[in-house]
Amino acid sequence: MKKNYTFQPSTCRENTNAEKYILRKQLFGREDVLPVWVADMDIDTPDFVLEAVKKRLEHPVFGYEEVPKSAFLAQIEWMKKEHGVVYELEDMFYSHSVVASMNAVIEAFTKEGEGVIVQTPVYSPFFHSVKEHKRKLIKNPLKQLVDGKYVFDIEDLKAKIDEKTKLLLLCSPHNPVGRVWLKEELEQILELCLEHNIVVFSDEIHSDLVYAPNFHMPFASLSQKARDITITAMGVGKTFNMAGFAMSTVAISNKELREKFMEVYKKVHFANGTVFGHVGFEAAYTHGKEWLEDLKLHLIQNFHMLQILCEKYPHAVNVTPIEATYLAWLDCRGMQLSNKKLKEFFVNEAKLGLNNGISFGREGSGFMRLNFAISHAKMLQVIKQLENALQNRYGRKND
Ligand SMILES: Cc1ncc(COP(=O)(O)O)c(C=O)c1O
Fold first, then answer.
1. Which residues surround ligand 1 with Cβ inside 6 Å?
2. What CATH number has the domain spanning 50-287?
3. Of 107, 153, 231, 252, which has the highest C-beta tally within 10 A?
4. Is residue 2 helix, strand or coil?
5. What atom of ligand 1 comes closest to residue 171's alpha carbon?
6. What tens digit of pLDDT does each residue of 122-161 get?
């Protein structure tokens, strides 16, 4: 019988090592903010993952372990069923972090001074990684339409590619703008990458958190030619709230690309992860479907609560339409505050700890990112605090 998951408030994370909580003073200057920033969930990791870990604990030896084939196979099966993309075992690599995989790809496929494209605003390691490797950062900002939705700027991309452009870092679905890229949009990117021999690193860590009727199209599934130029990063970190397991994968179908990647991969010794990561990862991809369906319903209800609030203050805060992720991209430009003052409004007036939009690149100026992967009760608290703060500034608005 189908179990119904209700996502009650997570077990308290205060006084654990949870980044979201312990960094409050450092990031927001005070401890009493409700933290809705870093992209993990204040929702318990699923019971079937915990069961798998407990079972592993029954064996008292925790020596070196390979990633079990069955774990990779569980993910391969999941990707086939959920996203229609087929990988072989030999295509799969373990990685402790998608960001680490991205850095390895930059190292493997580009040289100092060569160009790497990123589409801003975007999760900041995209541009930090490029700069840290002393590659040339090519910013191809997304365009925002009147309804707030973002699209690729293909003309800008065409104009910026030159013979030294070697890599494109694609965020699909996109954090923070919440887009699920359509086949036709991805094909435009593909066409340019094929024409200019550009390798694509497709970060698909948010691909299971897509809201119907949208569906995720893996970049590698566009065509055989797409497969041949793509390195895909995937993992359980976001979907099943398992960032603390440090368990993700890289999938590369093309042998040449695989060998090139492997040179760096071996050199920096990615190794095999943890025994708990292995069993948790396998359990998530084996038993996760129903839990995930319930989770997405839960998340979208939280998002609707936020939408209803923002509709009362359209001149101050607009929430960008969302197709994927549990990260709301709030357009606060109507408040006409500097980024510093905007943060202060959220921290000191609403007592909420969000990510500053500007940290996703200049294009995020005037925006804030709010993580709504919390219980309904906590979401109501977030809404109440934000509504009070908005009321104090702009007056009471009727329901
Ligand atoms: C697009 C994207 N990629 C990667 C990550 C981080 O992945 P990892 O913890 O596996 O490095 C995040 C986390 O928020 C993300 O949003």
1. 39, 97-99, 123, 171, 175, 203, 205, 235, 237, 243, 248
2. 3.40.640.10
3. 231
4. coil
5. 1
6. 999 999 999 999 999 999 999 999 999 999 999 999 999 9
